[in-house]
């Protein structure tokens, strides 16, 4: 038995949620009657889990004459029999919870269907009686004359005449949806009862439909009235008192200031849709200018800590244009409706893909914005595969057609006769279900569905998206939207090119100097942020998420590194203090290095085993072999060349690679830094010159030998230049004069080095031309005839990458391919 308590317990779960909105009837028909049902949804839960969403918002599923797609409820306590019954609903909740999916249902409390028994009773009840007063009546249809009409295309007034009651009744939506009278305490009690019923069953929260219109008062616009807020606060107190971790999500299509009022002081609704931001995302992409977005967010008040916006691109209704100015509305109509029939009420009845001309790059960009801006994203079913629409179906039905599962009959949605479907499937040539469906996209890792899966799952790894604050950056190029999302120590930089052309953009990031941006999707590291503006180039409709991370091994600022003062370089290794130097300076540095492979082990001691002096008074340097003893397992030898770089001012310090810095070291009163010698060009080049001259350096009986295969193998007259390759793994690689490749082994051993032996054998004995030729090596020859190989020099092979990256890429491609195969 699966317990619903298994669902992760978390009071603020809605802040990190990704909500998927769907209609039962549209999702999957399990019994072939042409209408989707709960059994069908149960069968498709694996799909939603795989998509990565964390909550399902179910559109109304109650018994209803379905004249407003179920928002006209005729019974609050049961399930429309076409969709199932309470038993299967319970099973659905259980199965959803088992997959860590929360369930949000509709609580339509502003109005009922005129078929609801309450209305039938009211119209017949005595005027003034309690039953009659379940609804709002008037003999005068001019009452509340300041109130706007919402469904402008169908309703001439908010009052309709009821011939039975012989009175007018109030309705903010369709005339078959009379508004409940919230001034009647019995109505309020009914609502509490309905809520308890569903919450007890395990529902995790409610979308409070049309919530600003609950009360009516003369000489007001009857929206957002104090009485409405007070009622919602009571509702919340009731829920909090009886249940844990439940959610109230308000549908208040208002300007930000009025919307934010629905959060109260954190004592009203937990969540609330941000309606105004939605059309502005569309405007910004069309205008190729970030202003509509930055402006509306600037107008949005900050909200209580426990609250959260819900943001969306499309839903089951028209793309509403109520919360824009007249000019903005004209612009939106002009830009986003090619056919006049797409207009409805104050909005546009299109799905996401048709609105964006079915442009994959625009669909990605808009979703990217949805997943980046503050709030919890809500995805409308079918938009994750780019479904089309059909406004010829009337009302808003064109965006409510069957989900497209496959290229089979009825898009794999139902076995019924196609004529029996509750609505026809999409056959528009640009969006026909034969090509736009889940099955074909699951099998193609480049599909929109896979892109959506990736962005959903990537977003879930960063709490900053759901919880962080937003701070806009203001680069001169207004076509690029740039902002940071910061939560605790997590900093994400978000960049979106709103234009259809490539852009270059310089962004002030001095606040993050020393951080290395890691592009989140690819995990690629970008160059470190310096004191200067950072230049990004972006492709058409391009976007980036960067995690701004302190550079690897960068423990706080440079000032946090140890400081050492000596009179002479040799003092570092003086018998009285060397132990401290080994434990306190060398050990922590090496531990943080990428190439140190024993990070998981407990180090017992670190001792300098060999110390070969390679410098002079001006530029002291020592080549160290260090003996690492661990609490468990075999001891290991690591090599670390040390060098001192004199610095005169901040500029000269900045030239030193931060990764190489071990300690601030002043010698004889002169300032400088103790660094990993490979990062000191002078030291590096010295190694090359020694190789050219096949130098042998005596040291305590041992000998440092620079060996090349033949005298002519290494040409090194004149200037030497060298650079360190950035792909650092367990070794460090240097390229000399663009011609020679030196691999400096970090973990060494005083026995045979198979890498060197094999390469040398293949070059010198087998004359095998398919490996980079062996040229030479640097080794330490011990008195006992053993050798420690420190470095090998080879011919470089021109190549566009390295084996490590190649292997990683191949593995990634492999896993992507495996993931798209049908599950067995
Ligand atoms: C909400 C719903 C919409 C419905 C209306 C009336 O706005 O989103 O679909 O028609 O309420 O219930």
Structural summary, described in words:
The structure is a single chain. With 824 residues, this protein is an alpha+beta fold. It is built from 21 helices and 36 strands. Strands 1-2-3-7-8-9-10-14 form an eight-stranded parallel barrel. Strands 23, 24, 25, 26, 27, 28 and 34 form a seven-stranded mixed beta sheet that branches. A seven-stranded antiparallel beta sheet has the order 29-30-35-36-33-32-31. Helix 9 (277-287) runs antiparallel to helix 10 (291-298) and helix 9 (277-287) crosses helix 11 (326-336). The longest helix is centred in the C-terminal third of the chain and has 18 residues, at 803-820. The two termini are 25 Å apart. Bound molecules: alpha-D-glucopyranose. Alpha-D-glucopyranose binds next to loops.
Q: Quote the distance from N terminus to C terminus.
A: 25 Å
Query: Helical region count?
Result: 21
**What percent of residues are in strands?**
15-25%
Number of strands: 36
Radius of gyration: 35 Å
Overall geometric form: elongated
Which ligands appear in the coordinates?
Answer: alpha-D-glucopyranose
- Secondary structure: helix percent: 25-40%
């Amino acid at each position: 038995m699966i317990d619903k308590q298994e669902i992760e317990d978390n009071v603020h779960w809605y802040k990190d949620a990704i909500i998927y909105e769907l209609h039962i009837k549209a999702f999957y028909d399990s019994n072939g009657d042409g209408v989707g049902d709960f059994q069908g949804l149960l069968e498709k839960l694996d799909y939603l889990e795989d998509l990565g969403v964390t909550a399902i918002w179910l559109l109304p599923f109650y018994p209803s004459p379905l004249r407003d797609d179920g928002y006209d409820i005729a019974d609050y306590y049961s399930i429309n029999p076409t969709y199932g019954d309470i038993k299967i609903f319970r099973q659905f909740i259980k199965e959803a919870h088992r997959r860590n999916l929360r369930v949000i249902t509709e609580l339509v409390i502003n109005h009922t269907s005129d078929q609801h028994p309450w209305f039938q009773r009211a119209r017949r009840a005595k005027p003034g009686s309690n039953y009659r007063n379940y609804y709002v009546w008037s003999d005068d249809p001019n009452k509340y004359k300041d109130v706007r009409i919402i469904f402008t295309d169908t309703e001439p007034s908010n009052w309709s005449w009821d011939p039975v009651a012989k009175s007018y009744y109030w309705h903010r939506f369709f005339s078959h949806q009379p508004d409940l009278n919230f001034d009647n305490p019995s109505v309020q009690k009914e609502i509490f009862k309905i809520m308890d019923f569903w919450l007890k069953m395990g529902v995790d929260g409610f979308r409070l439909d049309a919530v600003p219109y609950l009360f009516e008062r003369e000489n007001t616009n009857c929206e957002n009235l104090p009485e409405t807020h007070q009622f919602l606060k009571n509702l919340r107190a009731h829920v909090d008192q009886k249940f844990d971790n439940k959610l109230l999500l308000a549908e208040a299509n208002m300007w930000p200031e009025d919307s934010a009022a629905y959060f109260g002081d954190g004592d009203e609704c937990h969540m609330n849709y941000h309606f105004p931001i939605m059309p502005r995302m569309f405007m910004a992409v069309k205008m190729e200018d970030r202003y509509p977005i930055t402006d509306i967010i600037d107008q949005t008040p900050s909200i209580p800590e426990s609250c959260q916006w819900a943001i969306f691109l499309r839903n089951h209704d028209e793309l509403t244009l109520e919360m824009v100015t007249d000019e903005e509305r004209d612009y939106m109509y002009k830009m986003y409706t090619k056919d006049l029939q797409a207009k409805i009420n104050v909005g546009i009845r299109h799905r996401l893909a048709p609105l964006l001309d079915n442009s994959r790059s625009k669909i990605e960009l808009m979703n990217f914005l949805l997943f980046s801006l503050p709030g919890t994203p809500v995805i409308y079913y079918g938009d994750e595969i780019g479904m089309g629409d059909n406004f010829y179906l009337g009302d808003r039905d064109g965006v409510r057609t069957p989900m497209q599962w496959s290229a089979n009959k009825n898009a794999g949605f139902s076995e019924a006769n196609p004529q029996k479907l509750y609505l026809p499937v999409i056959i528009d040539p640009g969006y026909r279900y034969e090509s736009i469906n889940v099955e074909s996209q699951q099998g193609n890792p480049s599909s929109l569905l896979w892109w959506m899966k990736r962005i959903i799952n990537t977003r879930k790894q960063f709490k900053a998206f759901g919880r962080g604050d937003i701070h806009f950056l203001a680069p001169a190029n207004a076509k690029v939207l740039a902002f940071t999302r910061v939560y605790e120590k997590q900093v994400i930089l978000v960049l979106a090119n709103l234009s259809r052309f490539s852009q270059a953009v310089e962004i002030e990031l001095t606040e993050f100097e020393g951080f290395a941006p890691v592009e989140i999707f690819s995990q690629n590291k970008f160059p470190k942020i310096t004191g200067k503006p950072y230049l990004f180039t972006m492709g058409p409709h391009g976007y980036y998420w960067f995690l701004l991370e302190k550079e690897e091994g960068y423990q706080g600022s440079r000032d946090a590194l140890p400081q050492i003062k000596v009179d002479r370089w040799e003092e570092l290794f003086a018998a009285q203090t060397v132990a401290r130097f080994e434990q306190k300076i060398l050990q922590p540095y090496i531990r943080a290095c990428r190439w140190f492979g024993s990070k998981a082990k407990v180090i017992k001691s670190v001792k300098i085993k060999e110390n070969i002096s390679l410098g002079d008074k001006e530029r002291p340097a020592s080549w160290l072999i260090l003996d690492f003893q661990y609490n468990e397992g075999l001891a290991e030898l690591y090599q670390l060349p040390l060098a001192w770089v004199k610095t005169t001012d901040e500029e000269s310090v900045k030239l030193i690679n931060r990764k190489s810095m071990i300690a601030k070291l002043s010698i004889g009163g002169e300032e400088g830094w103790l660094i990993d010698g490979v990062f000191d060009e002078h030291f590096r080049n010295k190694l090359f010159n020694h190789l050219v001259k096949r130098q042998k350096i005596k040291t305590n009986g041992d000998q440092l030998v620079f060996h090349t295969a033949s005298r002519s193998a290494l040409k090194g007259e004149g200037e030497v230049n060298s650079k360190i390759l950035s792909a650092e793994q367990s070794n460090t690689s240097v390229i000399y004069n663009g011609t020679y490749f030196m691999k400096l082994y970090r973990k060494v051993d005083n026995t045979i080095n198979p890498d060197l032996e094999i390469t040398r054998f293949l070059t010198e004995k087998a004359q095998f031309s398919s490996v980079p030729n062996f040229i030479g090596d640097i080794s330490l020859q011990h008195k006992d005839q053993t050798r420690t190989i420190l470095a090998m020099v080879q011919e470089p092979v021109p190549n566009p990458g390295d084996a490590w990256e190649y292997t990683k890429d191949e593995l990634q491609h492999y896993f992507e391919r495996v993931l798209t195969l049908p599950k067995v």
